[in-house]
Amino acid sequence: MLISKYAEHKRDFPEYYDNFCIHNNIRMVMDFIGVEKVDNYIDTTSGVSMPKVGIEEFNLIYNINTSGVLEPYDEKMHISLSDRSDDKAWNDIKKCINNGIPIVVLIDVFYLEHLPYYKNAHGVHSVVIYGYTDDERYVEIVDWYKPYFYIGRISIDDLKCGMASKNPFGELINSGYPIRNKWIHIEPSGWNATSQELLYKTVEKQLKTFYLAELEDENFYYGFGILNRIKEILTELTDYPQTELKNICERLHKKIFLMYKYSDFNFNYMKKIFEELKMTEFQQELNVLNSRTEYWRKFLNLLIKTVVADTDVLYKKVMSQYDKVLHFENEVFSTYDKILNHI
Rounded mean pLDDT of the chain? Predict the structure, then answer.
């Protein structure tokens, strides 16, 4: 069974979707089924929490169980999750394929033979299944992600193992949490929001889930609580021996990296939709969002340098750069609030 039109469908890969393969696959399937202005529905807000653990176990948990689109349209994204190791997930996916519906699945790169991580490193990834061979030994996939842009087959055994993978923590950023046979079926009808409505929902959600979130509870930090705790950790690390400092800085870089990527993701979303709506009066607000992204990038560049360089002078620069990040995150808070009140 093959949905041949999906393999032939025109597709692109905006640079700011780098590290957001799930969202990119969702937008491609939405475009295939006829949704207009698909990028405006994509949820670019950062759902993140920080467990209250020791510095050596520092972690940020990003919400990979997101539907990928904004409320209430997330109700049109039917997400299946299961810890079962039998064939149920595949049998359900097969029914959708038989009905002409491409399916977005999460899979461990350890089981994707066309990637350099095959049997070598773990990390969650996403592909679209659009068919399977008659003997059900192989599935047809599109993995439209740079630099591979793969359209071809993987074995059904690798699919099943990759979807059920525990995805143990390792060198890749998206490792460290189970995939749980997650797959997504997208409804084709009822996508009728205006761009202005979707912009409002984006800004409102970003404020609610991060900038206005409670700072902490018994087990986790949230929003500004995360940012403040990172500042405390950086300060505490000044008393660590260099070897330990380097190891922890490497872990911090790996875990914080997606905060920078979400910043860039959201900035480009806002820029694109402002241009569409001709909201030229918000250029200064866009500049603030862009500056926030640049300060995160510079901070991470300095942080990773501490892993390979003499850290005494460099670490002071890390601390100074993070202060600038905190300053601009407060600026972004005010910026989002201003945008929300003027939409």
Answer: 92
